[in-house]
């Protein structure tokens, strides 16, 4: 079971194994929102529609993160525990790297009249090259949120609150597209609700920009023209999605030069 965490209106994934499972097995992409300076890192934010789908299909459970005033004194210890844990893991990784090239290192030392045994040289190189500080550490993705955070966790029924962050229409459209085998990401940057891909976005460009509209509400001709032009300009099809008689229906807007 994959663990999702709800905090300040966001649904987050902190465990890298869970993120890999979501992407490889369930076509859930998410968006990296963590950062360590210039390097993106965990956690991963997933869409409300993705969260609801995962929960309804029994793939994931959700817990809410509660931060109380009494927790504030734990932040320093928390940072220190992350740093210590990463130092241990990085040292293990660095040791494996050095062991794979120790013969060449020893040979180079001999040319400089250093005839110590391989183990002593390896330990020296390891100490010199495996130092992790707060200025160069990355988020330790091999740790899980439950084991390191001092915050209190509480199981939350996301179904009771998801409409605060999305709509039934968007959830229905997302679920329908997902059931057809597509990969789906957020589509705000292209003026829609979702971007739809035939494969993983790492390898494929989006083919559809999907905008969800209520069937009983009107849409102006100017909006339709704008959607068609936008889709053509970015080499995608602009699709309007609605619910009609309980089923998701789609209309594709094509721009044709006369």
UniProtKB/TrEMBL annotation:
InterPro entries: tRNA_endonuc-like_dom_sf (IPR011856), tRNA_intron_Endo_cat-like_sf (IPR036167), tRNA_intron_Endonuc_cat-like (IPR006677), TSEN34 (IPR016690), TSEN34_N (IPR059049). It comes from Callosobruchus maculatus (Southern cowpea weevil). Residues 2-62 form the TSEN34 N-terminal domain. This is tRNA-splicing endonuclease subunit Sen34. One of its GO terms (biological process) is tRNA-type intron splice site recognition and cleavage. Belongs to the tRNA-intron endonuclease family. Keywords: Lyase, tRNA processing. One of its GO terms (cellular component) is tRNA-intron endonuclease complex. The keyword tRNA processing applies. The lineage of its organism: Eukaryota, Metazoa, Ecdysozoa, Arthropoda, Hexapoda. Its EC number is 4.6.1.16.
């Amino acid at each position: 079971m994959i663990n999702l965490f709800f905090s300040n209106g966001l649904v987050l994934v902190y465990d890298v194994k869970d993120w890999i499972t979501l992407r490889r097995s369930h076509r859930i992409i998410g968006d990296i929102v963590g950062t360590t300076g210039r390097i993106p890192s965990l956690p991963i934010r997933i869409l409300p529609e993705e969260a609801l789908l995962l929960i309804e299909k029994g793939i994931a459970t959700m817990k809410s993160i509660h931060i109380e005033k009494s927790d504030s004194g734990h932040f320093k210890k928390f940072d220190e525990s992350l740093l210590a844990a990463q130092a241990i893991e990085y040292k293990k990784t660095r040791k494996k790297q050095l062991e794979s090239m120790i013969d060449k290192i020893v040979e180079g030392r001999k040319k400089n009249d250093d005839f110590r045994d391989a183990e002593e040289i390896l330990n020296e190189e390891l100490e010199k090259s495996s130092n992790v500080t707060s200025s160069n550490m990355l988020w330790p993705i091999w740790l899980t949120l439950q084991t390191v955070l001092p915050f209190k966790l509480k199981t939350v029924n996301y179904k009771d609150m998801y409409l605060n962050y999305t709509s039934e229409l968007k959830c229905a459209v997302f679920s329908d597209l997902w059931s057809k085998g597509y990969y789906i990401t957020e589509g705000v940057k292209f003026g829609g609700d979702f971007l739809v891909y035939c494969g993983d976005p790492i390898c494929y460009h989006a083919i559809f920009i999907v905008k969800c509209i209520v069937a009983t509400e009107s849409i102006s001709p100017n909006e339709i023209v704008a959607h068609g032009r936008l889709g053509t300009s970015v080499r995608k099809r602009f699709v309007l999605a609605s619910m009609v008689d309980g089923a998701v229906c789609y209309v594709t807007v094509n721009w044709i030069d006369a």
